[in-house]
Amino acid sequence: MPEAPADDPGISASAVTTLRLIAGWAFVGLALLNLAMGLDSFPYVAFHLVLLLAGLAMLGLQRVGRRPRRAAWLTGGAVAALGLVVSALPEAAVDCCSREYSVRHGFPFTMIARNPGGWHADGARILIDVLFWALAGMLVLIAVARLTPAPAGPAPARLAAPPRRAEHAEERGTRTADDENVRGLP
């Protein structure tokens, strides 16, 4: 089996990049289409704005800058986890979902609702809220990574200048057959 070129990222890196781009385009498309349909309520607009920003960030991830450090990962993870938990605790004043339940919890959509008959958990809306808070955490992670200063340390070493190549035919003519990569073929 032939070896892959040195600049080939490999099948797993290519697959991850492909999935990231597909998700980015899907998020941007869904957000723009749903926002074009109307601005119903604050939770609806907030969800689709986060979806739009996250999709754009996924499409331009190579332009984000340096890799996130520990502070960025901790901050982004905290926003995702705490946002989900804290938004589910208080009663939500949403009027879009689970109208038959008088007490609703969750943001941007109702995850858990209660009426005099008992509690109701909506699995699809729980997944959507988890997605919302994960994407919000990703946006915070990117922002913190961009805003934190670069680590103090030695300056990156400069690459050595490549060896000077012969520019004139007379200089190139002094090579031997072993100098060529074809190993002496005429």
UniProtKB/TrEMBL annotation:
Instruction: State where composition is biased (Basic and acidic residues).
Output: 164-186
* Protein name (Swiss-Prot/TrEMBL): Uncharacterized protein
Residues crossing the lipid bilayer are 21-39, 45-64, 71-89, 126-148
| Species the sequence originates in | Paractinoplanes deccanensis
Chain intervals with Low complexity compositional bias? 153-163
* The organism's place on the tree of life at top rank: Bacteria
Q: Where is this region: Disordered?
A: 153-186
> Which UniProt keywords are listed?
Membrane, Transmembrane, Transmembrane helix
Does the keyword field hold Transmembrane helix? yes
